[in-house]
Design goal:
By secondary structure, the protein is of the alpha+beta class. The chain contains five helices and twelve strands.
Length: 311
């Protein structure tokens, strides 16, 4: 789960997610045109405004049983490999992703925020991601020559040269502008490599029939930084949900990614990847509008993802 990360002035801890895919983060604003504006803390009732005090970060989970042994169960690894092989073999991928992440309120209990992504990719070098979101909509394109981040409401666009592959373009967008999506590893040429690097725990929990309207197999996977639960389609071997908690997060905030409407190898019109309206839009720099987001570093950079410390 690992690759590019999120953007935004107030981006939150990303959620690393499946298949080397899913890193989570809080959305961004403006120049990155990559998400929705980062939400503010919940408004307090007037009566409680003075009494309410931000909750202190406290560990929310008990330590692992001392007698528990970390294992990489062969069946779990086989399921992860099957998902990766299915995605890597597809020439085109289309799916909908809804990311949900918790952020603490001033009263203490976390509030859940969500971001929706409509994703179309054509290997090796084309990608379109539309984000209607609960806040301002934004769009991201890679057409083989350029990367474009576009904010329709503001009619602003940022342009940059694109590397020769989608995977390289996403990494470049992350390094240059802090742009990240929680499913980037699903789009990698080798999702299995990204997902299993550093793995110290993997086992099958059992079957489920309540996620995505299909029968799935639940797999738990963990490395030193994140604990994940992944729901994998039993028949189609496609990821349907990913749930993650970062080990060094004292609040134990939860992140989820739901994946649906999968289409593999379906024909894709080439104009999908050309943002016509962006060509006449106002220009903005292809870079982060603020300091680096408090998010995870992409594993694609060569080191295990580690949530950045809050300053």
């Amino acid at each position: 789960m690992n690759n590019v990360r999120t953007m935004g002035r107030d981006a939150f801890s990303p959620l690393l997610a499946v298949l080397a895919v899913l890193l989570w983060v809080g959305p961004a604003t403006g120049a990155q045109a990559q998400g929705t504006p980062a939400p503010s803390a919940a408004t307090q009732p007037k009566a409680a405004a003075k009494a309410a005090v931000p909750a202190k970060a406290k560990p929310s989970r008990k330590p692992a049983d001392a007698g528990f042994k970390l294992i990489l169960e062969p069946r779990a690894m086989e399921l992860l490999k099957a998902v990766s092989d299915r995605l890597a073999a597809a020439k085109t991928l289309q799916f909908t992703a809804v990311a949900g992440y918790e952020y603490p309120s001033k009263l203490g209990p976390p509030i859940l925020y969500s971001v929706r992504y409509e994703v179309v990719m054509q290997r090796p070098d084309k990608l379109r991601i539309l984000m209607p979101g609960d806040g301002p909509a934004s769009e991201f394109y890679v057409d083989g020559r350029q990367m474009v981040a576009y904010a329709p409401k503001e009619n602003l666009a940022a342009f940059a040269d694109a590397p020769p592959t989608v995977e390289a373009a996403l990494l470049a967008a992350f390094k240059t502008a802090g742009i990240y999506f929680p499913f980037v590893d699903l789009l990698a040429a080798d999702p299995y490599k990204a997902l299993t690097e550093g793995a110290e725990l993997a086992f099958v929990v059992g079957p489920s029939t309540v996620v995505g309207g299909v029968k799935t197999d639940m797999v738990v996977w963990a490395n030193p930084d994140v604990f994940l639960q992944i729901w994998i389609g039993s028949d189609d071997k496609l990821p349907r949900r990913v749930r993650a908690i970062f080990r060094n997060d004292p609040l134990g905030l939860r992140h989820e990614l739901d994946l649906s409407d999968w289409k593999l190898d379906a024909p894709v019109p080439q104009d999908f990847f050309v943002p016509a309206k962006a060509q006449s839009a106002g220009r903005m720099p292809f870079k982060s509008p603020g300091p680096p987001a408090k998010a995870m570093k992409p594993l694609a950079a060569g080191k295990p993802a580690v949530p950045a410390k809050s300053k």
